[in-house]
Write a structure and sequence with these properties.
Blueprint lengths: L8 E2 L10 H6 L9 E2 L12 E8 H9 L3 H8 L8 E9 L9 E10 L8 E2 L4 E4 L22 H14 L18 E3 L8 E3 L8 E5 L15 H6 L8 H12 L4 E3 L1 H4 L5 H17 L2 E4 L20 E7 L5 E7 L17 H8 L2 E5 L4 E5 L2 E4 L21 H13 L14 H14 L7 E2 L2 E2 L3 H4 L2 E3 L26 E3 L5 E2 L4 E6 L9 E17 L6 E2 L12 E5 L5 H4 L3 E15 L4 E13 L8 H14 L11 H11 L20 E11 L15 H6 L11 E6 L1
Parallel strand pairs: 10-11, 10-12, 12-15, 29-30
Antiparallel strand pairs: 1-2, 3-4, 4-5, 5-6, 5-7, 7-14, 8-9, 8-11, 13-14, 15-16, 16-17, 18-19, 20-21, 22-27, 23-24, 24-25, 24-27, 24-30, 26-29, 27-28, 28-29
Helix pairs in contact: 2-3, 8-11
Pfam family, one: HET
InterPro entries: HET (IPR010730)
Protein name: Heterokaryon incompatibility domain-containing protein
Length: about 725
C-alpha cells in the first residue's frame, strides 16, 4: 500500500524557471503551490505503482485559496466542501509502461476527513494528467511531453520532420510510388507567395504533400478553363483561401516543394478533367509523401494554424530531479480529444477516402499535431506521444478485406454529403483500392463491383439495412443505383451478422453512368436470383409483418423489419402488400432449454407493374435482363436461360430474339420487384417435442406451428431493379 506519511519537500515558494514562454504565460504557479515540491525520492512506496504525499490540513489549503492560489481554490471549491476539515494528500501514479519511480503520469488531490464517523477517503479534485515541457530539467524523467497548443511552432515542425524521417525506415509504409499514375498537376510552393504557380511539367515521382480539408461552400478561386493559363504563370490566392495558404506554409516548413489541392489541381468546370482526375484519386493520396489534414477548419476560409486556447485550469508545480536540479511539471485536464474527435472534417463523406488511402498524415488538431502512418499513430504531446495501435484501415489481406469493406461502408454512410449523387464517387477511390487487393489474390481474374457491393461476397452484402435508430431519409430525388444497392438510399447502413449459410450467388448487371468511372454512379441495373419467396402484409408504421392469410396474427414478436427509406405519409399509414425473399439462415443452440432455433434474413420486396405496365424509369432494367439472357456460350446454348423462363411464364410471351436484341417486356407482379426493406425473424422456435418454450401451453405451441413460415415455400426466380 502507498505510504501516507511522507511530506513533500519545501522550496520556500521558489518558482522554478520555465524555458517555454507560451507555457509560462498559460499556466498557473504561485508561491503557495510552489511551496510544495514533487519529490519521488522521498517516497518509500517500493513496488507500488502510486505514491502519496501528505500536504497538510484543509485549513492550510483554504488559506492558500483565499490568498489567490488557483490550484487550491479548485481543490477547496470542489463539491462545495469549503467548511469540512481533514487532511489533504497529493496522490501520484507512475507511468504504467515505465518502471522508473520518477516518471509520473497522473495526479489527484484526496481528502481524508478527520471525523471518526467518516473513516473513508473522499476525492475533492478531478484527476489531472502530468506532462512536462520539452527542454525542462524534469523532461529527463517525465516521459509525457505537454500538449502542444502552439500548433504553428518550431516544436511542431521539428516533430513533423522527425516523423517523416523515421517513417522512411518503416517497411509497412512503402512504396510511395504511384502504381498507375500520380497527379497531373501540382502547386509549386517556392519560398514565398511570389513563386506560387500551378505546374504540369514537374519531375517524375516528386515528393509532394496533399491537402485534406473541408470546402465549406463555393471557392471562387478554384481552377477553371478560363484561369488555368494564368495560374500556370503565377498563382494569386486571395486571403480568403486561408486553409490552402496555411497548407502552403506547412509544405514549405517541412521541406517540400509541391502541394496537391483538389480545388486548384482539378479543372472544376471541366467534366472530362473531373472524370480523369477522379480516376487518379487513389494513387494521388497513396503516393503523396504526406497528407496535411486541416482538422480544425470547417471551411476553406478559416485556416488551421491559428493559436489555440489551452484548457483551464493548467497548473505548474516544482519537480525535484534526482540530480538536485529543480524542474517543473504541468497538471492539466486528463481529457485530450483524440485523432477521431468530433471535427467537421471527420463527418464529411468526401474526406473519408483521403483518410483511408493516405499512407502518412499530419493532422492539425485543437491541442496537438497528430502523425499517422501504416506503422501507427502518435502526437507531439500528451499521452499519445509514442506510437499507439496501428491505424491502417485496409490491411491489404484478401481474406479480411470484405469484412473491412463492410466496416468502411458503415462509417462512410454515416458521414454527411452535400450532393447526394456523389454517393458512389466519394468512395470510388477506396473501391479501386479494394479491387487491387482482391485482384492480387486471383491474378488474371477481374473483380466485379456491383454498385457498392462486391461480386465475391454479393450474397452476404445484399443483406444490408438501415440503422434501426437512425432517422430515415426520403427516397432519393434522382436514380443512382438499383434498389438492392445501399447506394440507392441516403441513410446510415449496416450489415446483417451473417454467420450462417448463404443462398446461391445471384446474377446481376450494372450499367454505369460514365464508363470511365468504374466505381461510379449507375444508370440502371438488375439482380436475378432464385430463392424462397412468400407474400406478406407490411403493417402500417412498417414495424411488423403479417401473413396475408392470417391478417390478425402479427409477426412482430418474430420478425424485425427495417425500411430502406421514408415513404410518403399516405403510404406509411396503410398496410402494404409485399413479398419476402429469404437470402440467409443460421441456427442457434439454446443450452438452457436443450433446443435450437433457426433465424432467417432477407429482403422485403414490392412488386412493380401490377397493372401490366412497365414504368419508363424501369424500362432500361427490363431490357437489360433480356439482353443479358440472350448471350450464348461456346456451345451455342443460352448461357442464362434460367433468366428467360420466368419472363416467359409470367408474361405469356413467345421468346424469339437473337443474342443482344432489346425486347420490351410488360412487368407483372411476380416478375419485377423493387427492394423496400430488410427483415430478420425466428423461423422455427418450437423444434423440440413440438413445444415452444415461449408458449404457455401445448395448444398455443401447436398453433404456432403455422409460423414455420418458409418451410414449404417453393423456390422462385426473382428479378429486382
Amino acid at each position: 500500500m502507498p505510504q501516507q506519511n511522507q511530506r513533500p519537500r519545501k522550496s520556500h515558494g521558489k518558482v522554478p524557471p520555465c524555458n517555454d514562454p507560451w507555457v509560462a504565460e498559460n499556466s498557473h504557479i504561485c508561491r503557495y503551490c510552489a511551496a510544495v515540491v514533487i519529490d519521488p525520492q522521498s517516497s518509500d512506496d517500493r513496488g507500488s505503482r502510486a505514491t502519496k504525499f501528505k500536504y497538510g490540513r484543509v485549513k492550510h489549503a483554504r488559506r492558500a485559496a483565499v490568498k489567490g492560489c488557483k490550484l487550491f481554490h479548485d481543490v477547496i471549491d470542489k463539491d462545495g466542501r469549503r467548511d469540512i476539515d481533514g487532511e489533504v494528500y497529493f496522490g501520484f501514479s507512475f507511468t504504467p509502461w515505465n518502471h522508473s519511480k520518477f516518471d509520473l503520469s497522473y495526479c489527484r488531490v484526496e481528502y481524508l476527513p478527520s471525523s471518526q464517523s467518516l473513516p473513508f477517503k473522499v476525492d475533492i479534485a478531478e484527476r489531472w494528467s502530468i506532462a512536462v515541457s520539452p527542454g525542462d530539467p524534469a523532461a529527463a524523467y517525465i516521459s509525457t511531453p505537454s500538449p502542444n497548443y502552439n500548433i504553428n511552432s518550431t516544436r511542431a515542425y521539428e516533430f513533423a520532420k522527425q516523423c517523416l524521417k523515421d517513417c522512411e525506415s518503416h517497411q509497412d509504409c512503402h512504396p510511395l510510388t504511384p502504381a498507375k499514375g500520380g497527379p497531373r498537376r501540382l502547386i509549386e510552393v517556392g519560398s514565398d507567395d511570389e513563386q506560387l504557380k500551378l505546374r504540369e511539367d514537374f519531375p517524375e515521382n516528386p515528393k509532394y504533400a496533399a491537402l485534406s480539408y473541408c470546402w465549406g461552400g463555393e471557392q471562387n478561386y478554384k481552377t477553371n478553363p478560363g484561369n488555368i493559363m494564368s495560374y500556370q504563370q503565377k498563382l494569386n490566392l486571395p486571403s480568403t483561401a486561408k486553409t490552402i495558404l496555411d497548407a502552403i506554409s506547412v509544405t514549405r516548413k517541412i521541406g517540400l516543394q509541391y502541394l496537391w489541392v483538389d480545388a486548384l489541381c482539378i479543372i472544376q468546370d471541366s467534366p472530362d478533367d473531373m472524370v480523369a482526375e477522379l480516376a487518379r484519386m487513389p494513387d494521388i493520396y497513396k503516393a503523396a509523401y504526406v497528407t496535411i489534414v486541416a482538422l480544425t477548419s470547417d471551411k476553406s476560409s478559416t485556416g488551421f494554424l491559428e493559436p489555440r486556447t489551452p484548457p483551464k485550469p493548467m497548473y505548474r508545480l516544482p519537480y525535484q530531479c534526482p540530480t538536485g536540479e529543480l524542474g517543473s511539471v504541468l497538471l492539466f485536464d486528463p481529457y485530450i480529444p483524440g485523432i477521431n474527435s468530433d471535427y467537421t472534417i471527420k463527418t464529411r463523406a468526401w474526406t473519408f477516402q483521403e483518410e483511408i488511402l493516405s499512407t502518412r498524415t499530419l493532422e492539425f488538431g485543437n491541442d496537438m499535431l497528430w502523425w499517422s502512418c501504416n506503422h501507427g499513430i502518435k502526437s507531439d504531446g500528451g499521452k499519445y506521444h509514442d506510437f499507439q495501435t496501428k491505424n491502417r484501415k485496409l490491411s491489404g489481406d484478401p481474406e479480411t478485406v470484405m469484412k473491412e469493406w463492410k466496416s468502411i461502408v458503415r462509417t462512410y454512410t454515416a458521414r454527411k454529403m452535400t450532393n447526394k449523387n456523389d454517393r458512389f464517387n466519394a468512395i470510388a477511390s477506396i473501391a479501386a483500392e479494394v479491387a487491387q487487393i482482391l485482384e492480387r489474390s486471383t491474378p488474371g481474374v477481374s473483380t466485379r463491383y456491383a454498385a457498392g457491393l462486391w461480386d465475391t461476397d454479393l450474397s452476404a452484402q445484399l443483406l444490408w439495412h438501415t440503422q434501426r435508430y437512425s432517422k430515415l431519409q426520403n427516397t432519393p430525388a434522382s436514380y443512382r443505383a438499383p434498389s438492392w444497392s445501399w447506394g440507392s438510399v441516403d441513410d446510415n447502413i449496416t450489415f446483417w451478422d451473417n454467420n450462417g449459410s448463404l443462398h446461391e450467388d445471384p446474377r446481376w448487371q450494372i450499367d454505369l453512368e460514365n464508363e470511365k468511372l468504374s466505381y461510379g454512379q449507375a444508370k440502371s441495373g438488375f439482380l436475378a436470383l432464385v430463392g424462397q419467396v412468400k407474400k406478406a402484409v407490411w403493417a402500417k408504421g412498417r414495424e411488423h409483418l403479417q401473413d396475408e392469410n392470417f391478417p390478425n396474427a402479427g409477426l412482430g414478436n418474430l420478425a424485425s423489419t427495417m425500411p430502406d427509406f421514408l415513404q410518403d405519409h399516405k403510404t406509411d399509414s396503410l398496410d402494404l402488400k409485399v413479398w419476402c425473399l429469404v437470402l440467409a439462415q443460421k441456427y442457434q443452440f439454446h443450452a438452457k432449454y436443450g433446443s435450437s432455433s433457426e433465424r432467417v434474413a432477407g429482403l422485403i420486396l414490392r412488386p412493380l407493374g401490377t397493372t401490366g405496365q412497365t414504368s419508363p424509369a424501369n424500362m432500361d432494367s427490363v431490357r437489360t435482363v433480356v439482353s443479358s439472357a440472350s448471350e450464348v456460350d461456346e456451345d451455342g446454348v443460352y448461357r442464362d436461360k434460367s433468366f428467360q423462363e420466368p419472363i416467359l411464364r409470367h408474361t405469356d410471351m413467345t421468346f424469339d430474339a437473337n443474342p443482344g436484341d432489346e425486347v420490351a417486356i410488360p412487368a407483372c407482379e411476380s416478375f419485377l420487384f423493387q427492394r423496400v426493406g430488410f427483415f430478420e425473424m425466428h423461423h422455427d422456435m418450437d423444434v423440440v417435442r413440438g413445444f415452444d418454450e415461449y408458449a404457455s401451453d401445448s395448444d398455443i405451441a401447436e398453433e404456432k406451428e403455422k409460423w414455420k413460415w418458409f418451410k414449404d415455400c417453393p423456390r422462385q426466380s426473382v428479378y429486382i431493379v
